[in-house]
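Same chain as my last thread, 304 residues:
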Amino acid sequence: MNFEISAYLTKLLNTSAFFVMGVAMQKISISPGALVLAGNKRLEIIASTSPSKIEARDVISGETVFISPGEIEFELKTPLHSGSETFQAEAELAIRDSDIKLATDRFNVLAPLKTKQFLSKQDVEQCSLALGLSASQIRRLFAQLDMKKGPESLILKRRGRTKGVKIIGADVEDIIQQVIDEYYAGPGATVERVIQKVKEQCLTLSLKAPSSATIANRVRERKPRELLAKKSGKKAARQAYAVRGEKVQPEAPLQLIQIDHALVDCIIVDDQRIPLMRPWITIAIDVYTRVVLGFYLSLGGREN
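reply #2:
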């Protein structure tokens, strides 16, 4: 039975649902209050809002999230602690030999530069050439590098999967990140374009392309400010996400006086009518009443 249809029937009949994970059938209860694992997070089901959308609460952070039925990996019969053997066996990160080797290679290139606070343009170019990554990927890995953890700090973070379920390799992951850096740019940037380019590059390199949903999720994992900057420019991102101070609004006269300087739109001349300069005017204005409290004319600039 299709899981989304099963989830819908579950909502109506308050029964349990079945879905296929790998080759095994697993009974999943999505009734309110049920504890499940999804995306390496322990969630408590709140309600099923539609056949493809479930509202849940993160048990640790208390954050409310929305997931699809396919994201549920298994049901937690009792609340588990991160140190329990059951939790570790079912939800530990899947790390493969290829990922460890890749992390070690990257560590060997980046570690000698960790003594620097920032990478120079030349450092980034050399690392990009050595590792075959874009400049933004190099900077991201450099920020992620932890000398105490060693190569482990550069291992790609993957969500836990049960045994037998395939996950994308590090080479495909790199392709996704590089395509996002290169092609999600400009006013015409779309997730669909990124998906198309990833699949084209995977086909060229004879690699199995990830699903469209996986690629779209990688785009959404980027910070919203970064995506807006790539699409509409840094100025638009700064205007949308910059922290702005609260505007002071006086409630009575003389609570706030605003002083401003400006060049007067006229020219001072000498006795022979030879033009000398434009004078400066300094004005004091009461913000509440907008009354000019006083002004001062001078031939010196604001610094005087």
